[in-house]
Amino acid sequence: SSHSPSQPEREGLFHRGPGLNLTSGQYTAPIAGYYAFTTTLHIARREPRRKGQGWRQSRLRVLICVQSRCQHNSHLETVSRLESSSDLFTVSVTGTLYLQAGQYASVFVDNTAGSPLTVRSGSDFSAVLLGV
C-alpha cells in the first residue's frame, strides 16, 4: 500500500466506532448533521536529531478534513511550533464540522519537520453527532 508523504505510519489503532474504518482512517457520517470531532496524536520522530539540529522553524499541522478537501473551509486544524527538544509530543484538534450523510472525515498530518514521524499507539480519533 503506497501512502502519501504527508501520511504518517500508524503504529497504533484509532478509536473504534460504527462509522470509523480503521483501514482508511475515515469516519463516515451515517446521517447529515453537525459532528464534534476530536483527535489526539502522540507523534514521535523516527530518527534521532543530529547534534545541534533542533526543531527550529519546524511546524506541524494536524487537520481533520471532510472528503480529504483540506484546502476548503470544511476542515479543522491546529499548527504546533516544534521548539521542544523532545522526540515525542502530543497534538490535539477539536471542533465541529457539518457532514452530509455518506461524507467522511479523516485526520491528516502536514509534516514540515524534515524528519520522518510516527503516530504512536494511544492516539485517538472520535466523532459524536451533536444534532441535525
What does this entry look like structurally?
The chain is mostly beta strands. The chain is built from no helices and ten strands. The N and C termini lie far apart (36 Å). The chain is elongated, with a radius of gyration of 15 Å. β2 and β3 form a beta hairpin. It has a single domain, classed as Jelly Rolls, CATH 2.60.120.40. Strands 1, 4, 7, 9 and 10 form a five-stranded mixed β-sheet that branches. Strands 2-3-8-5-6 form a five-stranded antiparallel β-sheet, with no helix packed on it.
Low-confidence runs:
1-9, 11-16
CATH class: Mainly Beta
Number of DSSP-assigned strands: 10
Any idea how many domains? Answer: 1
CA-based gyration radius: 15 Å
The protein's oligomeric status is single chain
Keywords:
five-stranded mixed beta sheet; mainly beta; Jelly Rolls; disordered N terminus; 132 residues; single chain; elongated
Would you summarize the structure shown here?
By secondary structure, the protein is an all-beta fold.
Write the layout of secondary structure elements.
Elements: E1 9-10, E2 20-21, E3 26-28, E4 33-45, E5 59-66, E6 75-81, E7 88-99, E8 104-111, E9 117-119, E10 124-131
Parallel strand pairs: 1-9
Antiparallel strand pairs: 2-3, 3-8, 4-7, 4-9, 4-10, 5-6, 5-8
